[in-house]
Amino acid sequence: MLSLFRFIAKHTAYLYFLLYCGISILLMQLQRKETLDAIRERGLAINASVATQLSNFTGILNLRQDNEQLLLQNARLFSQVMRQQAELRDAKETQAAVANAPAWARQFKIARVVDRRFSATDNMLVIDSGASQGITKDMTVLTPDGLVGRVMEVSQNYAKVLPVINNDFMVSVVSDSSRTLGLLSWQNGDERIAHMEHVPVSSNLKVGEQVTTSDFSTFAIRGIPVGRVVRISKDKLFCNIDIRLAVDFASLSYVLISPAKPSREKIEIMGADPGRKGQ
Known about the structure:
Layout (H helix, E strand, L loop, with lengths): L1 H9 L1 H19 L2 H68 L8 E9 L6 E4 L12 E3 L4 E8 L4 E5 L6 E6 L5 E5 L7 E5 L12 E4 L11 E10 L4 E7 L8 E4 L6 H7 L9
Antiparallel strand pairs: 1-2, 1-12, 2-5, 3-4, 3-12, 4-5, 6-7, 6-9, 7-8, 8-11, 9-10, 10-11
């Protein structure tokens, strides 16, 4: 390395001379038209290439923005389609509820189940009709298939329904053939199976009989289907009776509410408390 520095120091004048010669030759070449044209063409080519790359990059950015706009538009359209399909399904279910309802239920109000609480004992439903729609406490709730429950609490636009499948629910029922009377209750377990209580062993009740609400009920009109007898076993004084409920609570979506109010006179003369377990 030291010898290289010494060589450069010794021959500096010659090196400068060679440098000046090279610069002179370069300047002479640049003065030639062919060289200038070649440089200009090369510059134009580079400029065109850069412009093309910038254009492609801008196009990619614009395409991304267009794709985002399309995604937002598709999301809005999908939301509208889903909402319209839900409204159409609701309309069909409402029409079906009205069409399948028996003649005595045609004057009932229709409501949709908007919330539910399922547990081993404390089941509850919420419907989207309240005081503004004429719903009051102790109104009967049902479907064309049968009894659902009774209204327990009412707000302006919603109501809480105590369903048959709740430990606090009871209703007076009667069988269709033998006219056997009893109280229907639900005691946990299967949500499709309830029990008919206070039926003496001397009863002529048979498996397969349909059970409906009776005249003894303090909130429900008579004749609403409740279920069908599926098992009977006799104890010392009373029968143990299983009733398969007419309503499938797992798929319940629309209900009918009876506009009739319970007879206060009947409740008072029977000594019943409407705030407790209703029959």
